[in-house]
Amino acid sequence: MGSARLIDGKAFAAGVVERVRDAADRLREACGLTPGLAVVIVGDDPASRLYVRNKGLRAQEAGFASFTHVLPADTDQATLDNLIAELNIDPAVHGILVQLPLPAHLDTTAVLSAIDPDKDVDGFHVVNAGRLAVGLPGLVPCTPLGCLMLLQAELGSLSGAEAVIVGRSNIVGKPMAQLLLGADCTVTVAHSRTRDLPGVCRRADILVAAVGRPEMIRGDWIKSGATVIDVGINRVPHSDPVLAAAGKTRVVGDVAFAEAIEVAGAITPVPGGVGPMTIACLLANTYSAACRRAGIVPDRI
Ligand code: GUN
């Protein structure tokens, strides 16, 4: 059997949510301010609706005000722009999240650019990407922030570690690289055109998989004792052919988990690893956005 330690993101995220709730309680007592999160969804993709529902529920659990705006799939750009403009000036709203992907007729870049950077709790605005790149305080994308928290909890100092990130998306790969650089890692960002990807992965003390391809990273791509963070959430047919024929699915990561636990030192499972950290960090970002809006230094989460 495998020997890797399981990194329990679900338990860690529950701790983060609890700390955010306590910090938000102190903020309310100190200055009567309740952090508010507005979530906007366009269309009726069931998976997106479920994510959005969960975000709203978690925000309420943390004692936040939660505002959910569900717009029809044929919403035009001007209507969405107007809603963002209203949320930007709404004093009860400290964080704005527009659920992605948007329907194809809408301009995602324009929508994300329209959000006030200081309410951009997803950290997707170019101003926040720039702040992160030059080391200024700002709002950091939730998934890579959650990965960094798990890595620091697991390893303590990351200084000098060889980190390999597989995937170069704006949402995970690139901000993850900035965060790990900031934590003094030596960072390689690998992607679909990388030559000898298995060889590059084998160098990693820290391997972050964020490619969106089910079980692409095999056990023999992993250095013995490495810490593996699996960001992938891929729905695939059930492994039992009878259940698969009945349309049943299961969720797997970007890492071949059964192989990886034989070699890695520690690994995040899917589900129950990185996933729960994303919403926890969204709440942490909303709390810190509320504090900054009020001119208060946020408590450390
Ligand atoms: N869709 C999938 N993940 C995310 C996320 O983290 N933020 C937003 N806005 N949309 C998403």
Q: Can you walk me through this structure?
A:
This protein has 2 domains: 32-118, Rossmann fold, CATH 3.40.50.10860; 142-274, Rossmann fold, CATH 3.40.50.720. A 6-stranded parallel beta sheet has the order 1-11-8-7-5-6. It contains 11 helices and 11 strands. It has 301 residues and is α/β, with parallel strands linked by helices. 42% of the residues lie in helices and 16% in strands. The protein is globular. The model has no long low-confidence stretch (mean pLDDT 97). The two termini are 36 Å apart. It binds guanine. Guanine binds at residues 97-100, 122, 142-143, 278.
At a glance:
The chain has 301 residues and is of the alpha/beta class.
Query: Any idea what the radius of gyration is?
Result: 20 Å
Unreliable parts = none
Structural class: alpha/beta
- Could you tell me which ligands this complex binds, including any ions or cofactors? guanine
Distance between the termini: 36 Å
Q: What is the annotated CATH architecture of the largest domain?
A: 3-Layer(aba) Sandwich
Mean pLDDT: 97
CATH first level of the largest domain: Alpha Beta
The CATH topology of the largest domain corresponds to Rossmann fold
> How helix-rich are the residues, as a percent range?
40-55%
Kindly give the count of domains: 2
Task: Give the total of beta strands.
Answer: 11
H/I helix tally: 11
Largest sheet: 6 strands, parallel
Strand order of the largest sheet: 1-11-8-7-5-6
Assign the CATH superfamily of the largest domain: NAD(P)-binding Rossmann-like Domain
State the order of secondary-structure elements, H for helix, E for strand. EHEHEHEHHHEHEHEEEHEHEH
How much of the sequence lies in strands comes to: 15-25%
Q: Can you tell me the overall shape? A: globular
